[in-house]
Amino acid sequence: MDQGIDRLPAEWQDFEYRHAYASAANTQGIAWQVRVNREQRGLSREALAGTAQLSESDISAIEDPGAETVDLVKLQAIARAFDCAVTVRLDSFEALAKASRDLRPEVLLVSP
User: 3-class SS at 107?
Assistant: First the structure.
C-alpha cells in the first residue's frame, strides 16, 4: 500500500471507503462552495441562475450536497458568474483528507 494511504485513518485503508468518500467529498464540497459564494455575494439562486444563464433548478441541483454528480459545464458557467476558475485535478487521498478538514465559509469563499 502507498505510504500516503498508510498515514490516513484506519477506515481510509479500505479501497471502497476512500473512493466513496472522495466521490461524496467532491459533490458535497462543490455544493457547499457554490452556496457559500452565492450567499456571500448576496445573490439568490434566481439571480445566480440569470447571471450564469442556467435555470434556478440547475443551481439548486448543484447546491444539493446529496447529489451524485455535478455537471462540469454548468459549474463552469457558475464560476464565470462568480468571476473565478474551476480546477479539476487528480490528487492523493492524503491531500483530500487534508482539504476536507477545514470547510469554514471563509475557506470556501473565492475572491474574483
Answer: helix
**CATH no., domain 3-106:** 1.10.260.40
Averaged in consecutive runs of 10 residues, what is the pLDDT profile of the chain (112 residues)? 67 89 91 96 98 98 92 97 94 85 84 75
DSSP for 1-61?
--HHHHTS-GGGGSHHHHHHHHHHHHHHHHHHHHHHHHHHTT--HHHHHHHHT--HHHHHH
Q: Is the dihedral of CA 102, 20, 89, 84 positive or negative?
A: negative
pTM: 0.84
